[in-house]
Amino acid sequence: MAPHDHQHDAHQDEHGHAQHGHAHGHGHGHAHAHAAAATGRAFAIGVGLNVAFVVVELVAGVFSESVALVADAAHNFGDVLGLGLAWGAAYLAKRKPSERRTYGLRRTTILASLANAILLLVGVGGVSWEAIGRLRDAPSVNGVVVLAVAAAGVVVNGGSALLFLHGRERDANVRGAFLHLMADAAVSLGVVVAGIVILATGLRWVDPVVSLLVSLAILVSTWSLLRDSLDLALDAVPQGIDPNAVETFLEELPGVVEVHDLHIWAMSTTETALTAHLVMVDGACHDAFLRDVGRELTRRFQIHHPTLQVEPPDAPEECAHACDDVL
């Protein structure tokens, strides 16, 4: 298929026995440009706030000998890297397609989320190793410093998350940043608890225990991110889209006799593509049909880039047989 603009009307080109239809809604690119600009500002502010906080938290953790603060700083540094990668990927994804890269660089958003997950897992391993060592010989910790810095973390992470509040419904990448930052705010609350307990009881082992709990929370959220990123990188059907429901929708279209060779995959963290072969009775396929199908795929399933190949009932059977093992 030749690359095509997202604002083109539905059209069909005859190639032997088949027709290829592409349907896209008007105004999608215009709205996307405004959303991208707002997201870029949110990333810039979020990265700036979190870089400053990571430096403060790391210095405070080292001088107060709090592994819980160091653990939280490592987590927040991972978030800074993740925000930076996502920001850079969002910028690259806006670059126009070229003769060599006909889809542009949209998939960089998927690669960024995968790299972020790997970096976080490495950080979790290092922090956990240090915390286990300190369980045997827990040093004295300045509970006041731990409490103050962690409380600041709740404010910084919570405030950064609010920057992505409105964009989280449109962009899976933005939604991930929002949820991750909200999780960080919750983790910082855990460190606040450690500071209070240390001040009240003097129990030094509370600090490494909290750091291990922080690491466990990071591991859970990061594992989910890693799994989803790998799925997207391997062209799995994106979360939230039921392929059986899509197939049923296509099968129930007027004039459709059969659906085969159905593929649904993510072009980026914000765009989903679909290709399918529709066996249709003669005269059932026309421009309005393709346009309406494209709009419904967008409305029902958030699929903005569908490509449909229409075949007559008497088409050669080789294609259908070759696609028997495909969804």
From TrEMBL:
Pinpoint the Cation efflux protein cytoplasmic domain residues: 240-312
Q: Name one GO molecular function term.
A: zinc ion transmembrane transporter activity
List the transmembrane segments. Answer: 42-63, 75-93, 114-132, 144-165, 177-203, 209-226
Composition-biased stretches (Basic residues):
18-32
Q: Source taxonomy lineage?
A: Bacteria, Pseudomonadati, Myxococcota, Polyangia, Polyangiales
Localization terms from the record: Membrane
Task: Tell me what topology the record assigns in the membrane.
Answer: Multi-pass membrane protein
Location of the Cation efflux protein transmembrane domain: 45-231
Q: Name one Pfam family in it.
A: Cation_efflux
Compositionally biased spans, kind Basic and acidic residues: 1-17
Q: Which family does it belong to?
A: Belongs to the cation diffusion facilitator (CDF) transporter (TC 2.A.4) family. SLC30A subfamily.
What's an example GO cellular component term for this entry? plasma membrane
Keyword annotations for this protein?
Answer: Ion transport, Membrane, Transmembrane, Transmembrane helix, Transport, Zinc, Zinc transport
Q: Where is this region: Disordered?
A: 1-32
**What is the official name of this protein in its record?**
Cobalt-zinc-cadmium resistance protein CzcD
